[in-house]
Specification:
With 412 residues, the protein is of the alpha/beta class. Helices cover 38% and strands 13% of the residues.
């Protein structure tokens, strides 16, 4: 029997035990899971999606040049050179209907995470009155900032299961008119974390049509857009029309430029929403230090280091193709730097994570920790592990070999 839209979603009020667990950091939960055990071999950490490739060489000299700018407060919208560089990069990189206006269609962010969080609050304030309790849609599994943003906004978080059957993207056909009519925002991730799925232009077009019809904002998380080994992922902004109405996209230098500790990104799109978003950020959000914005200007003006970054990831995915083959239902992801492995035949995701750590010294995240139980009690992350391919190629190859050996009893 086909599942209804209501059976595919769960509210904050449902599945309370699972909800409380999934609101916690998945890494805190992983630490607790592994606490009774010792790694059986020298530790290889593939749990945290923290890029380990070299920091670009231009970072240090630019920081030194602008060191005195740490002595003044930054403006919330970002310095003009940053907004121009970000707008120019996005306009070059994606097939946008027109170039972005750096004066009205770009805001600097202290990394995309805080922007995504505050955007949920801004969307709830921006939207017209809803028919029923306001809701924010998001994929499941999901980035924890989405649920935190919905909770802070006082909205119902509606979780859309992303599974192999629907290409690891939310099933738009499963959304009822009643749910859409009370939706104020839709968090969408492409490339998706953790599965690496990439939305097609036609999928983006459908999301845009729903946003216009029902009057909600699409919060498109595109921070992994520059990590791919074949075709370059597109942007939701390309489907947003000439005025980018009801669509904003979030970008970050963490993955693109190996600068996770710098905390610089931007949001671009609908100027009316961004004006309201700026008002909130101007009083509540962390500002971005000016020297870091100057580094970002250089980063968005250079593709050489990004090409090299992709080359290093390509080597590691080639290794995964060779070592894993079709084990654990492995498929090379279309984007991002994680692999999503099916370990349901190996005792489940928690058991596999413990075994890999205890017997192989490999630290990975159980997929159920990245998701929330649906109304029917199912967890779309259960039975999977997320493996972040962030270490160097030699270390990655060793980890993959250990995984095959520990779970399958053979050296890959």
């Amino acid at each position: 029997m086909a599942m209804t839209a209501s059976s595919r979603t769960a509210s904050l009020a449902g599945a309370q035990d699972g909800a409380q667990a999934s609101e916690r950091s998945p890494f805190a939960r992983l630490t607790e899971l592994l606490a009774p055990h010792k790694p059986g071999k020298p530790l290889i950490n593939l749990s945290l999606g923290e890029p380990q490739h070299p920091v670009p060489g231009f970072v240090g000299p630019i920081l030194a040049k602008h060191i005195n700018d740490f002595g003044r407060y930054p403006i919330a919208r970002g310095i003009e050179p940053f907004r121009q560089a970000a707008a120019a990069w996005a306009s070059r990189r994606f097939s946008l209907p027109r170039a972005l206006d750096p004066e009205t269609e770009i805001l600097v962010l202290n990394g995309s995470r805080e922007g995504l969080f505050f955007a949920g609050i801004a969307a709830a304030r921006y939207a017209a009155p809803r028919k029923g309790a306001p809701a924010i849609l998001m994929p499941n599994p999901f980035y924890p900032a989405y649920a935190a943003g919905a909770r802070a906004a006082g909205c119902e978080a509606v979780f859309l299961p992303t599974t192999r059957d629907n290409g690891f993207l939310p099933d738009l056909d499963a959304l009822s008119a009643e749910t859409l009519d009370r939706t104020v925002a839709f968090y969408l991730a492409s490339p998706a974390n953790p599965q690496g799925s990439v939305a097609s232009p036609s999928y983006f077009d459908r999301v845009k049509q729903l946003a216009d019809r029902h009057g909600f904002i699409v919060l498109s998380d595109e921070c992994y857009s520059e990590i791919y080994t074949q075709s370059a992922p597109g942007s939701m902004l390309a489907s947003a029309g000439n005025d980018f109405a009801n669509v904003v996209a979030f970008q970050s230098l963490s993955k693109r430029s190996n600068l996770p500790g710098m905390r610089v990104g931007f949001v671009a799109g609908d100027r009316n929403f961004l004006a309201r978003f700026h008002e909130l950020r101007n009083v509540a959000a962390p500002q971005v230090p000016v020297p870091l914005q100057h580094v970002a200007v250089a980063a968005y003006s250079d593709e050489t280091h990004v090409d090299e970054n992709r080359r290093l990831y390509r080597i590691k995915f080639d290794l995964a193709d060779q070592i894993l083959g079709n084990r654990f239902n492995y498929r090379r992801p279309a984007g991002g730097f994680c692999i999503w492995l099916d370990v349901s035949a190996h005792g489940g995701d928690e058991a596999a994570a413990v075994k890999l750590f205890r017997d192989g010294g490999v630290r990975v995240v159980p997929g159920s920790y990245l998701a929330r139980p649906q109304a029917d009690g199912s967890n779309p992350g259960a039975g999977y592990i997320r493996v972040a391919m962030v270490q160097d190629s030699e270390t990655t190859a060793e980890a993959l070999h250990r995984m095959v050996e520990v779970l399958n009893g053979t050296r890959g």
